[in-house]
Amino acid sequence: MSIAQQQKRLTPNVTLLLLASIIVSFVAASTAPSPLYGIYQARWHFSPITTTLVFAVYAVAVLASLLTVGKLSDHVGRRPVLLAAIAVEMISLVIFVLAGGVPELVAARIVQGIAAGAATGAAAAGMLDIDRSRGTLANSIAPGIGTGVGALLSALLVQYLPAPTRLVYLVLLVALLIQGIGVVLMPETVTPMAGALRSLRPEIRLPRVVRGPLLAVAPVAFAVWALAGFFAALGPALVRALMNSSIVLGGLSIFVFAVFGSAAVLVLRDRPARTVMLTGIAALVVGMVITLVSVSADSITGFFVGLAFGGVGFGGGFQGSLKTVTPLVEAHERASVLSLLYIISYVGFGLPTVIAGFLVVHGGGLRRTAEEYAVAVLVLAVVALLALRRTGRETRVGAR
Q: Transmembrane segments in this chain: where (predicted)?
């Protein structure tokens, strides 16, 4: 590369912001349909089970993508993978714009999930390539910001502007186009290496040093993402059940969850990883107890308070997981290790949500399902706490 070409590249700071914004856009695109499911249901007459299945196929597609192309950017570079992922994501948004029924929604979510899986590992690893400390922080904050922005933006556009099932996707298309130009201008953050085709084979390989820590944080990541999945898929409907409200209030429920998650990341950024995770678990427990009481008492105010505590639990739990794992891996291992952590997270994000959708129809309705789901998340939180205590005990014994 010539000196002139190098000078045209984005600076490391701008590149880090660009990569964080890409994760925000991809996550925003994944939550943008949430406030629209009520409109889709009214138009195409499908059940809550279909809603959660449409939601969950995204998680399955993300998992498949992470298992195959999650490690690819370690071999071919971050830029090519990101450019391809942005192009595929834009295709998914076009399918959403043209959707005329459930099959198109499912197709759009599958394509969207494939793109997100490819982009997540590459963008997350790219931020760590530039600055491990700030990259870890950005990796923790970006999903929450994307979740909140996507849901609230979609709700506002649906409520106040024309073309409710199309406009939000067109806005996201423009944002992704701009980010694609940014990727063209950014420097490559990793040295490509051989083995690109071999990396596409689905396999789970971890450096020995990270196996124990990842096993310890897995229950935490699963629990907090299970909570996020429930609120993203069924939260707006639950708000409408508690209070005959506008679509905006349903989108606001996801926004509150996400904002408090991001705030927790900022407040806890300098604390040890174990402290951050314990704080997240504690907030998760408090949030679920408040949610249980609020749903039983038909309290919309209490429900939003529970959402806020749940958001803190999500932010703390996921940030603590990242802070535990990322310092232990080398540059050429980052995408693969982060991809595995996201695989655990998206299993938690998708599987319980599908079960919840089934229970809404066949197990007693939305409110009862919300109560049962809250209890299940409480159980997961206890499992996560026990895993952390055991890991801490083993660490102390090993240090003697």
A: 45-69, 81-100, 106-128, 140-161, 167-191, 212-235, 247-268, 275-294, 300-318, 339-361, 373-391
pLDDT confidence band for 399 (50 / 70 / 90): very low
Q: DSSP letters of 76-126?
A: H-HHHHHHHHHHHHHHHHHHHHH--SHHHHHHHHHHHHHHHHHHHHHHHHH
Q: Could you give the CA distance from residue 147 to residue 127 in angstroms, rounded to a whole number?
A: 19
What is the tens place of the pLDDT at every residue in 86-118? 999 999 999 999 998 999 999 999 999 999 989
Q: pLDDT by residue (tens digit) across 154-174?
A: 888 888 888 888 999 999 999
CATH node for 9-188+211-399: 1.20.1250.20
Nearest to 31 by CA among 142, 148, 138, 161: 148
Domain boundaries, the chain: 9-188+211-399
AA letter at 310: G
Count of H-run helices and E-run strands, the chain: 16, 0
Q: What confidence score (pLDDT) does residue 9 get? A: 81
Q: Which residue has the tokens 């990727």?
A: 183
Q: What is the pLDDT of residues 63-79, one digit of tens each?
A: 888 888 877 888 888 99
For the chain, the distance separating the N- and C-terminal CA atoms, rounded to the nearest angstrom, is: 52
Q: What is the pTM of this model?
A: 0.78
Name, in order, each residue with C-beta under 8 angstroms of 236's C-beta and a sequence gap of 6 or more: 34, 35, 37, 38, 151, 155, 247, 250, 251, 253, 254
300-319 as b/e: b if 16+ CB within 10 A: bebbbbbbbbbbbbbbbbbb
Distances (CA, A) of 96 to 48, 101, 263: 19, 10, 31
**Nearest of 161, 159, 70 to residue 120 by alpha carbon:** 70
**What is the pLDDT at residue 14?**
94
158's tokens: 């649906």
CA count, 13 A, side-chain hemisphere, 335: 31
